[in-house]
Every structure is written in structure tokens, then in C-alpha cells.
Amino acid sequence: MAEFGRLYEQQYAVALFNKVRFDMEGGGGPQSQLLQRKIPLENKSIFSGSLYQCLEENKKWRNRFLFVPDTYNINYYDSKAAYDKHLPPKGTINCAGYKVLTSMEQYQDLISSSLPGLKAKMGSAPFLKFPYQFPLILWHPYARHCYFCVETEKEQQKWHAVLQDCVRHTNDGKNYQLIIISYCLIKNS
């Protein structure tokens, strides 16, 4: 029994992290968590392209150029010309802990489930009007949400896959795992 207790203690943190990860990302089966992985794309671009981003200050939409380096953080620029001139990015999004949504219905469901006592009405007017019918929303339980939009369903699928990869790769980092495990241990104690 003592040997089992020792093994249980070693595996508890991994099992707890798997549960938290599954709750945050949803779907998919559990994967090994604490293994080192090779970085085959080191010093290379993962993806780049243009889409519309909502500016939270004034709720206006701007066409932005997004560049995803091998770190899987998202750098956004005013334009491709600004990127080509090697100007600093307007901002950077670290996708750790985010969830990628492709509709306002998904967003309202998450808001309703994460804020007890508050229910979003499905028929009510949205607080944000998208210029096209293909939104991409980066939702985080404790950080600012990011709102993007594209013109076609094909673009939406492409960007959804890219953003999902960014979330998955940044969530696999050791620092994020330790933060989540620490948070869960503190919360459960």
C-alpha cells in the first residue's frame, strides 16, 4: 500500500492537469503532458495572413496582418507593409488558456456557463456586430477576449485550425502546466 501511495502522489498532478486541460479545451482524448517535444519549426513562420480585428476601445473593425512565429504567439500588425518594414507588432497574443470559438452562440454559451446567475439570451441583439458572418473569437476565462472576423467560411476554417494549433502548443508549455497545477492545488486545498 505504501508503494501505491507513492506512485499515486506522483501521478496525481498529471491527472489533475489532464482534467483541467480537458475542461478548458474540450473534446479530444488525453495526451501525455510532461514530455519534452522536439521543435521542428524553430526559427520559421507557422502562418501569416490578414483578417479583421475588433478594437475594444471603440468597437471598430480594422484589417490586421497576423504573423505566427515558431513560438505560436500571435503578432498582429497594422498591415503587411508594416511587417515587411520590420516595425514592431501592434500587439502580441499569448494563446495559453484560450479557447477558439467560431460563432456567437458558442460565445454566449460559454459566458452563460462561466458567469453564474447571468444568462445570455439567444434572440437578443449581440453587443458586437461582426462585418462578416464568419467570426473567430479567442475566449479566456481570466483574460481579455479577442474578436476576429473573416470574409469566407474557408478562411474561417483555415484560421480556426491555426488558432487551435497556437492554443494547443502554448498550453503544452511547462510554465503553463505548472501555473494550472499550482492554481488547482491552491483551489483544492
UniProtKB/TrEMBL annotation:
UniProt domain PH: residue ranges: 44-168
Record-linked Gene3D superfamilies: Pleckstrin-homology domain (PH domain)/Phosphotyrosine-binding domain (PTB)
Top-level taxon of the source organism: Eukaryota
PROSITE patterns documented for this protein: PH_DOMAIN (PS50003)
Pfam family, one: PH_Niban2
Xref: PANTHER family: NIBAN FAMILY MEMBER, PROTEIN NIBAN 2
Protein name (record): Protein Niban 2
Species name: Xenoophorus captivus
Gene behind the chain: NIBAN2_1
